[in-house]
What we know:
23% of the residues lie in helices and 36% in strands.
Amino acid sequence: MGTQPLPVDRIGQRFSIRLHDPAGGYRDVVGHLKSANTVVNRHGTDISFDPNQIFTWREIIERPKTAGTGAPLTLRVMELDQICNATWPAVESLEVDGWLFRASSGLTNRANSVLPLLSALESRTNTDFINKLASAREFYVARNLPTIFQIALPVWQELAAQLISAGAVETIRGNTMVADLNNLPVNLPTGFEIQESDHVTQEWLAVNPTAGLEKIIAGCKATYLSISQGKKIVATVRTAITTDWSSLTRVYVDNKYRGLGLGKAIVSAAIIESVKAGATKAVLQVEANNSIAIGIYESLGFKFHHEYVYLELK
């Protein structure tokens, strides 16, 4: 708490200023300090005042937002869903009344499923559900694909119950995990090295082959890291940045090279590259029954944020 004058060496910082009107009464202005007599409010408007009327002021210290905190759970889940969607974009997408239909010739569930959006929370009547479900079936039948929903829990628990009542069955259950990023040591066994590229190669894809995957990963700028022994790539990870988040996908270690610490090393390398690119937080999704991978992620600072399921209509 301070009194006049304002610390002009703190221009750009956020202040709450109480002004005393000589005629009586007080009023408050809040915004980022632009000069000794002006702040910029949250709408971007300049608010000027008489410095001689300052009764008291307080600098508002902005607490840095950390992964998985700072907003109601529903909004955090929606943000993470959008980050994962943006960094693993479907070849084709169509929004219908708050549901995002995604299709990519059946390559990966994330890129071939319905993602409910925040606006869908406002449409909960049974009629809306029936009509939108019919639209979803029509969309996927036309592409010779099953109708699958990606459902974040507990936000979409009611929708999950409706889908199950309509005949949907759970095919995958996973965890969304988040972490605040710091540089980490990368411990590699002798004879291995880490390589990094801004484009994908056939050798990188061959470690965990999925025919046609290039169509999805080409839709978003990303960094491709690998661990190799000689000329053979034995571990991979892909990182894509949006805002201050890094999304990690395609974490994989060749079966013959597991148990050597390569999984932890490749994820550590991905974290380092993400920090270099300006990310402060990371998100990844992992199947809930993959306890080995979850243990590796937890050892690197990742923590559980929420569950998700894929529900397929039979």
